[in-house]
Write a sequence for this structure.
């Protein structure tokens, strides 16, 4: 398919994985959006089997401006806080599984306390990492701490 983006490929695999997960707080019941180009929705929006509405922004480091995707995560999360039409929802981010260390290392250039407070302010409920049919979930602080310098 022409003009496929790394984010859309990531989203498609993630959606497939979430459809099979056993945890009702995360398993998709009603998919609202799964298009990274949508203007009125987060990249992924759905209602889980437990009734929780999710808004998840996807970012990939699989591009020539990979380092800029780190900054874009903050902007996308801030944008979600401005959508007043939906009050009760959980906000998350989706990154490639093999990019956890990449994002963590670059986030560590930010003071840890400020990074954590940003995640609390939004609030970021979960960080999802997907790749090769494997799904990992972690907290915002766990993403920051994932990279260990040698």
């Amino acid at each position: 398919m022409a003009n496929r983006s790394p984010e859309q490929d990531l989203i498609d695999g993630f959606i497939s994985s979430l459809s099979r997960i056993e945890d009702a707080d995360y398993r998709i019941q009603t998919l609202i959006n799964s298009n990274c180009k949508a203007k009125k929705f987060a990249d992924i929006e759905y209602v889980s089997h437990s009734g929780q509405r999710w808004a998840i922004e996807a970012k990939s480091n699989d591009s020539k401006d990979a380092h800029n995707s780190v900054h874009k995560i903050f902007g996308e999360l801030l944008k979600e806080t401005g959508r007043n039409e939906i009050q009760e929802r959980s906000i998350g981010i989706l990154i490639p599984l093999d990019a956890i260390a990449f994002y963590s290392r670059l986030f560590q250039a930010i003071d840890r306390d400020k990074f954590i407070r940003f995640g609390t302010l939004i609030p970021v409920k979960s960080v999802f990492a997907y790749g090769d049919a494997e799904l990992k979930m972690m907290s915002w602080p766990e993403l920051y701490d994932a990279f260990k310098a040698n």
About this structure: The first strand starts at residue 28 and ends at 33.
